[in-house]
């Protein structure tokens, strides 16, 4: 029965997301899709989390300066990690975008909404296409207005807890765009929506933000190591 009700919550979440995606797609015809999502994404994410069983604790919100743009990097436990970050955007008065597989842009209504949010499409078919995605990400964050979320592990944790080795892309983008890294640690989303299956369950979610890490006068590898060490220590995995 638990899985059944978890699946019903998941369907509720899908309907909820598609409602906003449909509205944004229609408004996008008149050039107002992005402004619509800017106002509603944070509060909508917060409501969605509450009606699907999530309770949350936020620490370190003071480390996010609304007048600055960052590359947010942290551990990856669930598809709902992005939802948590969007909810934070409403709390911290900042906007987010992220990188997603290009295939997702083909989904009706969701695809146009992602474009309105300046989501960066990633094509993993070749090195040249991956480099093009990297350049697009750098240009997007340089333009300002939206913080970029990247999970340097590249995929969700297999067991929901163990941190996988970081990949360098997030730190290359931050360095080239001359932006600080804003590290965070997520706990509990692996219970809220586990990696296997489609269900959303009661969960205590905790997100902690740490002081920004400067990329100035450091190599990509140095910034990556500093960030990875901090997150490992926070997760007691060092």
Computed CA radius of gyration, to the nearest angstrom: 17 Å
Distance between the termini: 39 Å
Average pLDDT works out at: 90
Give helix and strand order, one letter per element, not per position: HHEEHEHEHEHEHEH
Instruction: Please report the number of helical segments.
Output: 8
What's the level 1 CATH class?
Answer: Alpha Beta
* Share of helix, binned: 40-55%
Number of strand elements: 7
Helix/strand-derived category reads alpha/beta
Principal-axis shape: globular
Major β-sheet annotation: 7 strands, mixed
Domain unit count? 1
For the largest sheet, list the strands in their spatial order: 1-7-6-2-5-3-4
Q: Return the CATH topology.
A: Glycerol-3-phosphate (1)-acyltransferase
Strand content: 15-25%
In CATH terms, what is the architecture?
Answer: 3-Layer(aba) Sandwich
Q: What's the oligomerization state?
A: single chain
Low-confidence stretches: none
How is this structure best described in words?
This protein has a single domain, classed as Glycerol-3-phosphate (1)-acyltransferase. With 238 residues, it is of the alpha/beta class. It is built from 8 helices and 7 strands, in the order ααββαβαβαβαβαβα. The chain is globular and about 50 Å long. The protein has helices spanning 2-28, 33-51, 81-92, 110-116, 127-143, 169-177, 189-192, 220-234, and strands spanning 54-59, 70-74, 96-101, 120-122, 147-150, 180-187, 203-209. The mean pLDDT is 90. Strands 1-7-6-2-5-3-4 form a 7-stranded mixed sheet, with helices on both faces.
């Amino acid at each position: 029965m638990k899985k059944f009700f978890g699946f019903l919550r998941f369907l509720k979440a899908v309907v909820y997301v598609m409602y906003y995606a449909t509205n944004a797609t229609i408004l996008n015809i008149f050039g107002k899709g992005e402004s619509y999502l800017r106002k509603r994404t944070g509060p909508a994410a917060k409501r969605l989390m509450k009606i699907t069983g999530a309770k949350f604790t936020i620490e370190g919100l003071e480390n996010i300066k609304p007048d600055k743009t960052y590359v947010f990097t942290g551990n990856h436990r669930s598809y709902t990690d992005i939802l948590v970050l969007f909810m934070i955007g409403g709390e911290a008065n900042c906007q987010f975008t992220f990188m997603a597989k290009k295939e997702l842009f083909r989904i009706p209504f969701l695809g146009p909404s992602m474009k309105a949010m300046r989501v960066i499409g990633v094509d993993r078919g070749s090195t040249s296409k991956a480099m093009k995605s990297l350049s697009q990400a750098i240009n997007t964050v340089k333009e300002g207005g939206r913080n970029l979320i990247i999970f340097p592990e590249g995929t969700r944790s297999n067991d929901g807890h163990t941190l996988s080795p970081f990949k360098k892309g997030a730190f290359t983008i931050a360095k080239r765009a001359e932006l600080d890294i804003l590290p965070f640690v997520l706990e509990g989303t692996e219970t809220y929506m586990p990696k296997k299956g489609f269900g959303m369950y009661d969960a205590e979610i905790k997100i902690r933000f740490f002081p920004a890490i400067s990329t100035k006068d450091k190599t990509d590898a140095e910034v990556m190591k500093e960030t990875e060490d901090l997150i490992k220590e926070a997760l007691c995995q060092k």
